[in-house]
Amino acid sequence: MPLPPRVTELAGFDLLLSVARLGGIGAAARAHGISQPAASARIQQLEARIGVALVERSPRGSRLSKAGALVADWARPVVEAAADLEAGIAALRDERDSHLHVAASLTVAEYLLPKWLAALHTLAPGTAVALTSGNSSEVANRVLAGEADLGFVEGPDLQTGLRAETVAVDELRLVVAPAHPWARRARRIGPDELAATPLVSRERGSGTRRALELALAPHRLADPLLELSSTTAIKAAVMEGIAPAVLGAHTVAAELAAGTLVGLDVSGTDLRRALRVIWPAGQALRGPAADLAAIAARGA
């Protein structure tokens, strides 16, 4: 049921209780951190709303009228209940802000999130973070199910019920073993040849795989030679010479620098992809979730 219009605003009643407790409008004004004219105006507004005089004013000061004393007695449990409500809400917010559940795709979880979480710890050291990882589809499902406050994905698709913002742009890299025949070429492969080559690939639902499928959409894509759900396992398979792979640049930077993998360019194909933060539509990121999203946007 809607609140009665005369009691929807409790600040005036709270001030009236202070007048009763402290014995005057001036003392009540000081307790509330406002000027005496402002306190007098607030009491007058309350009197106008109620329709009776609540304070008797005289050269010697102010005191509650009989009606004011009655209203103060009635208002006291209401104001105290409102204070309890505010304290309870604050406790809930503190509890929420002390725990953060994050879901992230493997590339983000392994290669980017550690630095972002270190920055969050500096900003909010009291926040405990629980991280789960999986492919982009699994991350989206966790966020939709309420199992994560926010997620980080690599895939270009966005499920219904989610909002997303780009925090970084990553690039896919075609990599082969140093002994692979492609490594001895001019290190540039055509998209048609890449599409026709069975690769070591992530599983369906992976953002990396989906981004590659879209980039090579004009060409018929061969079925993977080997599907693995671990980026580390894919790199190991490529090093063993099983087949080439296409992985995020962040994930192969160390191997390319060490020479254990060789990177090749793909001509005429844009292999960039967005890394995005996702959260439930209709909600706003708050507290440590908003902080982490901002850190990701700055740090990536």
TrEMBL record:
Residues 8-65 form the HTH lysR-type domain. GO terms for molecular function: DNA-binding transcription factor activity; transcription cis-regulatory region binding. Keywords: DNA-binding, Transcription, Transcription regulation. SUPFAM superfamilies: Periplasmic binding protein-like II, Winged helix' DNA-binding domain. Belongs to the LysR transcriptional regulatory family. This is ModE molybdate transport repressor domain-containing protein.
